[in-house]
Specification:
The chain is of the alpha+beta class and 142 residues long. It has a single domain, classed as Thrombin, subunit H (Beta Barrel). It has 1 helix and 9 strands. The strands form 2 sheets. The chain has a 7-stranded antiparallel β-sheet. Strands 1-2 form a two-stranded antiparallel sheet. The longest helix is centred in the last third of the chain and has 28 residues.
Length: 142
């Protein structure tokens, strides 16, 4: 699949395999392998999502290739979609005395066949709502 080139600020261009939607979606995540015996997931929201990955913010640097297990809570659906992913890139975007902020791009590495079907249906529905109803219509569905 050819990359889509998207013009971004300051004259830089970015290569992505898919356009991302700027929709905040609840994400549960845990790092793999789990460093503790607890089966603990942490909560956050993605900044954007596509069919191939999503953007997250963390308070610490994540090394490229770091593996994560994600549960994506699509708007209007009760059961989250389970996805395996890995860090594609991570860069510091803000540094304060209280807390640094690292923008992190993750790409999906594995979705089971059942989850892949659900992901595709839910993502396509969300994308259609976003483009037909606009961002405000998508917010109303949450």
């Amino acid at each position: 699949m050819d990359s889509i080139i998207v013009e971004v600020k300051k004259g830089y261009s970015e290569k992505r395999k898919a356009q991302r939607l700027p929709i905040p979606i609840k994400i549960d995540y845990k790092f793999l392998p789990q460093k503790t015996s607890k089966n603990t997931f942490y909560n956050t929201y993605c900044d954007n999502i596509s069919g191939t990955g999503l953007g997250l913010s963390f308070d610490s640097y994540l090394k490229k290739g770091t593996c994560l297990k994600l549960r994506i809570h699509f708007p209007g659906d009760v059961q989250p979609v389970a996805v395996m992913a890995e860090v594609a890139w991570c860069k510091e975007v803000a540094k304060t005395k209280i807390e640094p902020c690292f923008r992190t791009g993750v790409q999906y590495t594995h979705i089971s066949e059942n989850e892949k079907e659900r992901f595709t249906l839910l993502f396509c529905e969300m994308m259609m709502n976003y483009f037909i109803l606009g961002e405000e219509g998508e917010k109303d569905r949450k």
